[in-house]
Amino acid sequence: RASQGGFTLLEVLAVMGISAIIITGITGLLYQEYRETNLAKTEVSVAQETWQAVRWLSQDSMMAATTDLVDCAAATANASLSWVAHTEFADIPHAVTYRLSGDDLLRDYDGKVTTVAREISGIEFSRDDRKITVSILCEPPWWNPTAQTKTTYYFSMRPNEEN
What we know:
By secondary structure, the chain is an alpha+beta fold. 34% of the residues lie in helices and 36% in strands. It has 1 helix and 8 strands, in the order H-E-E-E-E-E-E-E-E. It has a 5-stranded antiparallel β-sheet with strand order 1-2-3-4-5, with helices on one face. A 3-stranded antiparallel β-sheet has the order 6-7-8, with helices on one face. The model has no long low-confidence stretch (mean pLDDT 87).
């Protein structure tokens, strides 16, 4: 029997145990990579949506001469800004309103409504003199509910034309 070449039960079990450990480790690494990639994609998505909102808010705030926000009052969920564009031929009034509809941030510019950002869970506008403060909470439904991205931005309105 010494000439028979085979494996003992102990050797087979040892190889199976080592293989199981290696497979478990590889599976764990793959899952971790998958999870981290999805988290990174979500963070990029959140940043992009927030950036879209900030871009429009910044542009409109710099043009705004007046707003419906009350100076030093509590923050509100909506804001209206207005200004007059002076051209060679006429003065053209413009108005823009921002509001949330579900999780979409809507921009109503002179009657034309567009969605400027999605997955916005909350937004607050406030004003202190000529400075507008906007806090944006972006929390997509697939996002970890304990991790919120609330960012605050400050925009200056253009000076009063009388000054």
